[in-house]
Prior knowledge:
With 478 residues, the chain is mostly helical. Helices cover 69% and strands 1% of the residues. Helix 1 (40-48) packs parallel to helix 14 and helix 6 (124-137) packs across helix 7.
Amino acid sequence: MADTTSTDHGRFALPTKNLPAPQVRDLPEPPTKTWKIIGPGMVGAGVGLASGEFILWPYISSQVGLVFLWGAVVGVVIQWFLNMEIERYTLATGETALTGFNRYGKHWGLFFAIMTYFANLWPGWATSSASMLTYLFGAGDPRWIAIGMLLLIGAILTFAPVVYVMLERLIAVKIAAVALLVILALVFAIRAKTYGALGDAVTHPQFPADELGFALVMGAIAYAGAGGGQNLVQSNWIRDKGFGQGAHVPRLTSPVTGETEADPTANGYTFTPDDANLARWRRWWKFANIEQAATFVAITVVTIVFTSMLAHATLFGNPDVKNNIGFLKIEGTTLQTLVGDWFGYLFWAIGAFSLFAAAAGIVDYTSRLSSDMIKARYLRESKITESKLYFWLVWGLVAFGIIVLLAGLTQPLVLLVISACTAGTMMFVYSGLLWWMNSRALPHAIRITTWRAAVLAFSFLAFGFLAVFTIIDQVKKL
């Protein structure tokens, strides 16, 4: 079939060389009660409240203070723009960003799926959660606890009738628990010196690459919020929530307990850019931006700031804090001394649950991205459903994580830096692809604007620069 990259600037111009032409359907009406569809940004924030918020940023604050918190804010804001360009394409077409990339290059989706899988093969989140449980109960082997967690995550994800609904509920509980920790920390644990340090961080920011190394600095920025494949999966999450043209696409269900799946091989959906559809588009676009800002951005920034302040209040200047997960044990013990035993135990309990929920979300989005891409690009005519692909990818990730743990790779911070650097490299590549796709495939009225394109250009250059210097930094250490 010929490529349909039209020169008609008032229409969609999705290439059809690699995938069939989309169907044309009117854009659905946004719901009158938009609070009912708030959720994808919250899930993104909740899954992202993991290595960056509980490990990388608190560790940085324990070593250099709060002078690098600006990096977290920059990272989260950049990711908000990335998320919105990912959502722009899905709102308009019902296709994921990976499917859109495949329209421009046969195997772009496969490249990102492999990179996402590689970034998340290392079970750093599960081992971190397991380590915090051993601090909570004073006994146990983190390796075997982490293996048990991985098996539990596999069971949860493959038996939930509608996977997104289960994940949204799990993340809602997690966010409520973290909010409780933040409030109690403000009341009982954070002292005047930390508030003073926060003021100094605003007036005297620093870039502590010499003290921490480029790998850790890049990882912290890349994982401030989401990072890597987690940004790309916003496409899948808003589809399952029924945003825009995603309302025409069936949700991902369990192959064991879910309802019969509708035909997932249907092409994407475009709409005629007339006055009625563009009016609906403007309402969808406004809502999507507000939903991401009020959930993903707000929740993530607040959490990073306060977990970093808590680490500063308890660990800054302590020579016993080392570059490993054990610093969280010291932090909890210090909280017991400053506030009371109950606060230290609560800190470990909420941290363990938060990291477990994040691990579940990471296994979900890694498998969800890959199953959607494989079905849409390579198995369109096969009887193998996306749900079955998801099932096997989930258990493949669980099995590999168990192998990694049995092989003795149990140091969470090392595993998380590997994952974060891979994520940063991915963000460098897809920042450019998003600009290319959203400035060509969509009608002028809904294309990426110049100032948003400038942010993507900054993201492209920034993550490219960090990726190159991180590789150089690691080579020097060999």
